[in-house]
Amino acid sequence: MSASTTQSGRGAARRRALTGRAIFAGPGLLYITLFMTIPVLLVLVYSFFQRGRFGGIVWEFTLENYVRAFEPVYLNVLSNSLVIAGTTTVFALVIGYPTAYAITRLPKRWRTVALVLVVLPFWTNFLIRTYAWIVLLNSEGPINSSLVDAGIISAPIGLLYTPGAVIVGLVYAYLPLVILPVYASIERLDRQLIEAASNLGASRVRAFFDVTLPLTLPGVMIGAIFVFVPSLGNFVVPELLGGGKTVMVGNLIRDQFLEARDWPFGAVLALFVISLLVILFAIQAAISRRINGTGKRYAAKQVTHA
Amino acid sequence: MRNLGWLRVPFIFTYAFLYIPIAVLVVMSFNASKSPFVWTGFSTQWYTALFNNELIRQGFINTMIVAVGATILATILGTLLAIGVSRYFRSAIVEAYSLAPAIIPDLVLAIGLLAFFALVGVTLSLFSVLLAHVVFGMAFVAAVVIARIGQTDSSLEEASRDLGAGVVTTFRKITLPSLAPAIIAGALLVFTLSLDEFVIAYFTNGPTTPTLPIVIYSMVRFGVTPEINALAALLLLVSFTIVISAQRITRLTDAV
């Protein structure tokens, strides 16, 4: 602080900070509290009460909604959702990681172009992007007809309305969200560490698995969360590409709120998704604290591009 | 490209995977055949059919009302929030809280808002969709503007304050002009997001005022029609134009 700062000067600075907080951040924070925090807490509260006859709620405390989630039919949907969202995440990482790595190797100006091309599809209508796969995977669609023309198959095969189609649709929807954080973590990587590893005699494969991969793990985790969580809560892709045969937790939640009108049970299922999100973020935070302590900046920065 | 080695394989695969489906839709939108799968010749008939589709036209108007309203509100609130968070709070927790609406799963926000609107007695309509779109839109604007503030020098603002200008004057004369590109980019992104947003609109909308994504959803549910290909091509064009302009304005990706 400069020598001219006096007691009253400091008081004025404090007042300015408080006025600044109130004027600038006040309205936004209030809005988020009113239209995000309270609604989400409301879901938590609803999960402990009984359903109303036509939707809504009867204010009588019960744990029945939680017990019901453990019925085999629902456990089955939950585990099925975890498997599909997990498979989607693995595929997205296997495709996304090397792509992100390749982008970091491009000349600077091409890197920007490559990244914009990665995000562009993400900013286009999600339903349209899903619809594209209905066209592609259809029995009369281009994939089937080229396979038949090439003589690989004799008759069109059922690609659409399978769990595979759901996974393809989800990978397609969220791949950009893996590439961006992984790219950011590889870019920030200190190349000298890899050089050091090879100078010490490590092969390129060994250097990758011992140095690059562990150091980029925070970015990989962020990417994995950004694919896994929205895949879990997605009800459009299972419905349109799975043809209603693949039911995921997102479909159940939608049905409880809009069709069965059992909001408390829908709330329990939604809490399942939220708690997974929280747990995964906690794991991610622990990993990045261990590695470099700047995990939060990743998360905040990635939102800019999400 | 040449020095990528074997990395060329996943690199090319990714871009083919991302763009072939889009390209197929655009090509098929000019297909003369009624089947969206078999190419029989060039035609613009699906674009004509699209412009004469009353449902789509009404959905488009509804979507524009929501998108324009949400963009204006989200841009104002998000910009102020970004300045408040980076200049006056400097707290990681407050920053994370401000950006949370952009990270929370859309389905969770959607059911929360449905329950909330029902509890406080807000009738579901385009207005409730607008209120919902502002909350995540604001977080996206805040994220873009916070990133920009991080790159700018705060000494001008400090000088302005040291010379006796108040919070509001400093904001008008110094802060706002330096943040303008980020604010415009943020606004464009919110507009695109709102234009394309389906899940939250689906839960918080009234029954008589479907937005365009809701119209698309009900059409796609009943099967494929070439009209959707034409609509897809147009929406892609709109989104691409807006996002590329936003990128040009801020050079967003330089800040990755």
Written description of the protein model:
- The complex is a heterodimer of chains A (306) and B (256).
- Chain A is mainly alpha-helical.
- Chain A has two domains: 1-46, no CATH class; 65-305, MetI-like (MetI-like fold, Orthogonal Bundle).
- Chain A has 14 helices and two strands; from the N terminus they run αββααααααααααααα.
- In chain A, strand 1 and strand 2 form a beta hairpin.
- In chain A, helix 12 (249-258) packs antiparallel against helix 13.
- Residues 1-5, 293-300 and 302-306 of chain A have low confidence and may be disordered.
- Chain B is mainly alpha-helical and 256 residues long.
- Chain B has a single domain (53-255), classed as MetI-like (MetI-like fold, Orthogonal Bundle), CATH 1.10.3720.10.
- Chain B is 77% helix and 0% strand.
- Chain B is built from eleven helices and no strands.
- Chain B has helices spanning 8-28, 45-51, 54-89, 92-103, 106-120, 126-151, 155-162, 167-196, 199-204, 212-221, 226-250.
- Classes of the chains: A mainly alpha (306), B mainly alpha (256).
- Chains A and B meet through helix 1, helix 3, helix 4, helix 5 and helix 7 of A and helix 1, helix 3, helix 4, helix 5 and helix 6 of B.
